[in-house]
Amino acid sequence: MLSAPSISELVARAEADGKPLSEVILELETAASERGRDEIWEGMRAALRTMREAAERGTRSSVRSMGGLVEGCGRRVNALRLRGESILGEPMTSVVAKALAVAEVNAAMGRVVACPTAGSCGVVPGVILGLGGEQASEDDLVRALFTAAGVGYVIAQRATVSGAEGGCQAECGAASAMAAAAAVEIAGGSPRQAADAVAIALKSFLGLVCDPVAGLVEVPCIKRNASAAAVALVAAEMALAGIESVIPADEVIDAMGEIGRRLPLELRETARGGLAATPTGRLIAARFRADE
Amino acid sequence: MMTDERGGRPMAEMDVFSVVGPVMVGPSSSHTAGAVRIGRMARAVAGARVRRAEVVLHGSFADTYRGHGTDRAIVAGLLGLETDDPRVREALSIARRSGLDVSFRLADLGNVHPNTAKVILTADDGRTTEVTGSSIGGGAIRIVAIDGYEVSLSGEYHTLVTVHQDRPGVVARVSDVIARAGLNIAFMRVSRRGRRAEAMMTIELDDEIPSWVTSEVGSIQAIRRAFAVPRI
Questions:
Q1: Which residues of chain B does A178 touch, with a Cβ-Cβ cutoff of 8 Å?
Q2: Cβ of A107 and B88 within 8 Å?
Q3: Which fold has domain B29-147?
Q4: Where are chain B's structural domains?
Q5: Is the pLDDT of residue A145 over 50?
Q6: Complex ipTM, two decimals?
Q7: Global confidence as pTM
Q8: Residue B53 half-sphere exposure, CB side, CA atoms within 13 Å?
Q9: What does the DSSP 8-state code read for residue A48?
Q10: Domain containing A89: what range?
Q11: Residue of chain B with shortest Cα separation from A155
Q12: Does the CB of A1 have a partner CB in chain B at under 8 Å?
């Protein structure tokens, strides 16, 4: 029997070869794929371009979700930032604005990259573009996306990245862990620090349920994308400072999978529990049914 | 496919674009991207220019189609748009402008996946085609019925479909043509209305189907109709 993919194996390969995680992941992909290295690189660059377009659209203009429950969050935080009134400061306020922007564009039927899912598609672009957007080169950001993808692959194989299977911890939680590793690599941290950032970020989301109001990818999804992006940056900061996770990343991922399996069906994307079942949530759902 | 002890894929099958991707129009891979693919498959099965489409939405599709744009997405697929085309959002008005008459109905389609739609298409020549498809997660779909016959198609293969009289030897004659064409069969299924009654065969192939294969299969005695559904 083959062993499950692991963050520890990615780190071991990176340390043995003296390479960043992104390079190890790109080499694994090249070996597994029918496509050549250049074509794979271009594919990831195209994903980055789509992410950037969505982030720009959602920060410059007021985007309204299909269900109309959320509107203009990315633009508002960006405006606060431009007025110099942010209490977070850079790069955190940019990260939050861009994560909201991309998630809103998704909810408005705009073009996005599922990362790892459509519902959590704002987290990784928020962190990568907000942290590296001004200074880092495009190549660095593409590399960071490979790092995020490799972490997401391990999570998908060991646990799940589906809200219906594992709750929001599997979507926004996984995205936050992916983004945390990417942030460490952009900041010049080590593969081991990236693994600690994965563990620290994902631990913050264990148990988080998927309870979308009226079954739509709007409430609480869009604002949760911003929180998950912020946690990714906090986790990366801790790891870069040399703080280690007591529980290794792979064990945190396994715990997430186990918790997901134990979540009741009502709290796994069915819109039958949690926020969806609050008086306001029910009222909104009833309004949508009456509209039909 | 190899699997590790948990049933997942091993490190050697790294697939970065299954994690960062697909590029798609939001908001939901199952309720939007998958719905576009159901529409694309229905269009491919109809094979002709369609003037009328009746879309029946079931389960979670019926409950949340407005907020997820499932209605627009299915129509976008019927118009041949891809899952990442920004025009998916405007599909209903594009359909109106291009003379495709669309209507929607909510109904319980019975014991099917919660994200299921039935699409009834009327071609320019008046012929109707009925396709039922389920969106099974992450944008993947399964076509579960064509014209009342049970099928199981993912849209990820080139598919040869026959409508024929259920009698001995038909399957052998069809697979003989496929073998002569050097095509590799991935999955194959026969479904019949009753013993010696009309039946449908669906054959999912790795390779594109040359038109001579479709016409030669169609000329086999006992075969009423044969058509190819390209990979979507």
A1: 19
A2: no
A3: 60s Ribosomal Protein L30; Chain: A; (3.30.1330)
A4: 29-147, 158-229
A5: yes
A6: 0.95
A7: 0.90
A8: 31
A9: H
A10: 7-291
A11: B19
A12: yes
